[in-house]
Amino acid sequence: MTDAPLIGVRGEAVLEVEPEIARLSVHVQSQERDRRTALERLTERNQAALDLIRSYGDAIEKLDTGGLSITPRLRYGGRKEGEIRAYQGTVWIRLVVADFAVLGELVTRLGDLERTFVHGPDWGLRRDSEVYKRAARQAAHEAVERARSYAEALGSRLTGLVELADEGLTGDTRPHTEGVSLMAARGAADAGEPPPIDLEPATQIVRAAVEARFTATAPELG
Length: 222
Hints:
The chain is an alpha+beta fold. The chain has helices spanning about 35-55, 105-110, 130-155; strands spanning about 5-15, 20-30, 60-75, 85-95, 115-125, 160-170, 180-185, 205-215. It is elongated and about 95 Å long.
């Protein structure tokens, strides 16, 4: 146990950076009177969406299917209440886009597919982003500088570190889904492709904070 004076401080860093990735959620649907037909239509539309997404190659960082459902739709009211009037199929596709240059085009092309709903983009950073490390380092540096400033104000100087505790890193806590929702129900007469939608990446805010205690020489309080 030391009798040296202790100086306790908190260091914090707040960084504003551009996003690294954009997440999209795509729902593909079908609705038919027959269960098998609903499943077949769903399979066709799901494959069309996947083929379109995969055509963008390395611009797509991650692609997976979140789930599939075939749900009976019942009649309400009248003599046939409770009977199945149709079957609705849904497939959820999730993807991560790394190349923002193709994002607007991809969103509109997906939204132009029949019975396809697109939500996003949800802007973000990768889990292993260097930005988080940079924020942590800046928070630690601020803690040292603040402690040194206090020591100098008392006429002393720092001599050692007793403890450094990470309060954690957090991403932007504000809603940052600055995107669009698109759904198409095109008829056979529709032709051509829609123009790309202009999407502006949302700034990401990363915060880091640490608490630290330092030993110092005796202050000169005279």
